[in-house]
Structures are given as structure tokens and as C-alpha cells.
Design a protein that fits this description.
389 residues, alpha/beta, Aspartate Aminotransferase, domain 1, Aspartate Aminotransferase, domain 2, 4-stranded antiparallel β-sheet, 14 helices
Length: 389
Amino acid sequence: MSRLSETMKHELKQIQPSSILKFNQEISQIPDMVKLTIGEPDFNTPDHVKQAAIRSIENNESHYTDSRGTDGLRKAASKFLHDKYNVTYDPETQILVTTGATEGIFSSLTAMLNPGDTVIIPTPIFPLYIPDTLLNGAKPIFLDTSDNGFILSPEKLQATIEANKDTVKAVVLNFPSNPTGVTYSRKDLQAIADVIKQYDIFVLSDEIYSELTYGERHVSMGELLPEQTILLNGVSKSHAMTGWRIGLVCGPVDVITEIGKVHQFAITSATANAQAAAEEAFKNGPDDGVAMRKIYQQRRDLLLAGLKKAGFECASPKGAFYLFAKIPANLNQDSVAFCYELAKEAKVAVIPGASFGAGGEGYVRISYAASTEDLKKAVVRIQKFVDAH
């Protein structure tokens, strides 16, 4: 007798466990490995933020909060987003506190999708959006951006929407990008907004790396197209708080109301002391990410120079903490095989580009959310590997 929903069994068969986590787990068994695999800040959460959580515990704030998030956190988040990115969201009706941006993605796609809908997903991209789309009976439409500097062109977007306009429900944007480090200028983003506003569709705009941009200020799709944008953000990357699991979903009132229902039935509410910490981060540490950003930029430049010397070409990384490096032509172009060879022979672990969808093969993602010492060691080992092959 089947123990699973027949519908869910069908959707689950289309999904495989994360290839990124699988690869990371396998190579972690190799001694003396320099791991440049996982996208997690190597900084600690700021002390004033940790103290806010401690006070929350000491004050016995150990009960359910409002499912939408505490009033204080939503107000602090609203001000932070307005001051930083010129977006305006009513903390009472337009902001939802989720358990990380991950849950925000799931709850948003679950609320908006019907079986048979399609979701436009530019690739290479962090693959989480794909299983969430499939689990809801919808179909991803992949747009390979590798021929355009890893930027979605408005022409390609419009042509794809027109070819699928009876089914398209949403377009996913992730910028600054995981895995490429590429981000969108205001001009780029406005051109995409001008296309999307012609249609009755959403844009799911994942801007979790918004505080980690280099050389130019982040522009939010929530500013340019507020009536159609579901904005994702949080404290994981900006304040080195990945383990606290606090994300934000912002958007039009009617949309947030429906997403809030999925969120409520899935998790009830985010952890109380983690919300207190996030409130402190937004309210009294809006620029905590600046010092981290400066160090990330130094690491990026160190790694870029070393990789260039070793014969790698990289997408122009203007945000996040990743380099998407093209494997030199004289080396194995199968990114999975290359990464296993590099791990076993050079003891440097990076993620195969194939894990990020169309346009990713022949590349590797390298995280520079690692110590400068480890990055220097990795550069030396990669150079020796290239010379030996």
C-alpha cells in the first residue's frame, strides 16, 4: 500500500537531494581540505545582536509570537529596507517574517502556483527555486544567461513570456547572484521591470545578498515594480546570521496575506529570541555588513588575481561572495569530474557549475566566504594543479 500522496509521489520523483550538499559532504572526508564550497559568512554575528537574543531569553520571551513576526522586527525591517533601498512596505500588512529566505521562497511559490503554471528561472542560479516549483505541480522554464554576461536580457524574457503567456505565473530573479556574483544595474533592472509590467505575473526577487555589493549601490526590484514584486531579504548574509533563520517576504497586501497563510500553517511563527536579535540587527546595526563587505572585496580581488594567473576566466563579480570561474580549456570540462579531481589531487573543494543549471557546465563556483589564509593556500594549490595538468 502506498504511504504517500500519489500526487506528491509524482512530484518528489522529479526532485533529487541537493547536489551541492552531497558534494560538500563527500569531499569533507578528505584530510587537509580547503573548502570553498558553502555560501556562509565566516564572520560571527555582531555582539550587540547576540546580546539582544540573550536579553530576550532572560526576559522569558519564549512564547509564540504573531505569525507575521513581532511588531518590533517588522517595523525595524521596514525602516531598514526603506533607508537602504528606497522601498516602502507597511510593517503591519506588507511584511512577513519567515524562517530564513528559504521558507520565504517555499511559502511564496506555494501560495502563488497552481498545477500547470510555469515559472521562468534564469540560469545559472541557486537551484532551490526549482524543486519548490515542481513540488507545487508547476513547471520551470529555464533561460540560459551565459551568453549575456549572466544577465537576463529583456528581449529573451519578453519572447519567453509571449511563448508561454497562458501559463507563466512568475519570473525568478536572484541578485547579487548565487552562483555568479553578478548583479543588475538600475538600467538592467528597469528594462526587465518594463517587460514584466506588461503582464499579469509576479517577480520573485531574491535579494538576500543586497548588502554585499561592490562599487555600486544595490537597486531593488521592489522600488521599480512594487505592485508585482515579492521581495525576499533577511539577516543571514548582511549580519552573518545564517543559523538564526530569519528572513523577510514583502509585497502587496493581498499577496502577503495569502503567503502568510501558507507560512502560518507550515511553521506557526519564527523563534522569538531570533526575532529579537534580527530586530536589533536592523535597528541598531544597519551598517554591520559594511566592514564584512570590505574584507570580502579584498578576498575577491586576491582570488580573482590568483585564478587569472592560473588561466581561469571569471564572470564580473560585483556582489555576494562567489566567483563563477570558467575551467581552462586544457582541463577537464566536465565540471563534476573536474571538481572531484581538484579535491582529490589539490585538496581544494569548489562546487561544480553544473549544479546551477543550464550555462553552468564548464564552470565552478568558488566561495570566498573563507579566511584570507585559506584563500591564499587555495590559490597556490590550484596553480600547482593546473601546472601538473
